Amino acid sequence: MIMKKTFSMWSQSIRRFFSKRSLTLGAFSREWIRERSDEGKIKVSTLSNYQRIIERYLLPELGDLRLDAVTGEVVQNFVKSLEKKALKTSTIQGIIGRLSSIMERAVETGLIDKNPCGHIVIQKKRQTTTGKILTIEDQKTLAHWLSAHEHNLSLAIQLGLFAGMRIGEIAALQWKDIDLKNGFIHVRRNVQRVKNPEMGQRKTINQIGTPKSQKAFRSIPITSILMKSLQCYEKNGLKQEAFVIAKKGGSAYDVRTIQRYFKKTIFTLKLDNYRFHDLRHTFATRAKESGMDIQIISEILGHSETSVTMNIYLHITDHHKKQEMVLLDKLNSTIYGKAA
Question: Which UniProt keyword terms apply here (predicted)?
């Protein structure tokens, strides 16, 4: 009841100050995001993402248009312009999803008659593998260096390489999330950078929240290499509430600090120009090469669908192709006999 009353007051306020002819999508979008914020039901990180979509995509192209001028044809042309920017299908769907929510609210307030996003067509693109994986030699070089340089930022890299964790999950990891006795890492939190409202939206801050999806809540078995490293740190008697990747004072490292440390490490080792996220790709690919079931790999990575794992994270290497061809050779030998 309170919610309906608040919305009703907001609707009346909007109609009082604006008319159908004067209200632009930009002005209404800002009111929409402010109302979402006042409700207090949406995570700050999600709200920050909505704000980014509005400012980066909607306002530049549609912001100056009157609400009643945003027709289905206008929205479809907007989609085409987004497709020309080579954005992912999921990104375009997210942008149009936010626009649809805004326009639906405009319908509810009586400012427009119909939501123009109802029959918009978004061409689906086949998801392709992005990023790259470390070569076997580069992976060996990195792993040996990490084991010889004990530092919790080195441990952060190991968590990416040997557990396939996202960098935000690594930054938010606490010792209470690690079960050394049973050999599991429990992913329960994630760090995201969100805009700081106190700094006029110009600067960002770290915020610890829940993982990005329900599937991202998961348990990851600890490999023997990772177990050895974790046990070294655990012996220091750290508190359960302490962050695993923490400064001397106990506060968590910024995600960007972890990224800079990784970049400095691969530069020191004279490796290829890998990104931290490539560690996750490497983990997935090595897991597949070892014969691990795709469903298990997808569960460990926290993907909502195995198609994401297969199409984006698994890289087919020459080494893996050769391994598989050996199996075919063995089968051929049983059918045709050994080659003369």
Answer: DNA integration, DNA recombination, DNA-binding
Give domain status of residue 306, yes or no: no
Please give the single-letter amino acid code of residue 176: K
Digitized pLDDT (tens) for each residue of the chain, 340 residues in all: 444 444 455 555 555 555 555 789 999 999 999 998 888 888 777 888 899 999 999 999 999 999 999 999 999 999 999 988 878 888 999 999 999 999 999 999 999 999 999 889 998 766 555 689 999 999 999 999 999 988 889 999 999 999 999 999 999 999 999 999 999 999 999 887 766 655 555 566 777 878 877 888 999 999 999 999 898 876 555 566 789 998 877 788 889 999 999 999 999 999 999 999 999 999 999 999 988 999 999 999 999 888 888 888 888 888 778 878 887 888 778 877 776 5
C-alpha dist (Å) from residue 181 to 131, 152, 218, 296: 34, 21, 17, 22
* β-sheet with 178-179: strand ranges across: 178-179, 184-187, 218-221
Confirm whether 334 is domain-assigned: no
Pair (54, 152) in one structural domain: no
Q: Do both 77 and 195 map to the same domain?
A: no
Q: How many domains does the chain have?
A: 2
- Answer yes or no: is 339 within a domain: no
Task: Tell how many helices (H) and how many strands (E) occur in the chain.
Answer: 15, 5
Q: Please indicate, yes or no, whether the overall pTM of this predicted structure exceeds 0.90.
A: no
Residues 81 and 150 in one domain: no
CA angle 308, 310, 311 (to 5 degrees): 65
Query: What is the span of the domain harbouring residue 142?
Result: 137-275
Does residue 171 sit within a domain? yes
CATH of the domain at 195: 1.10.443.10
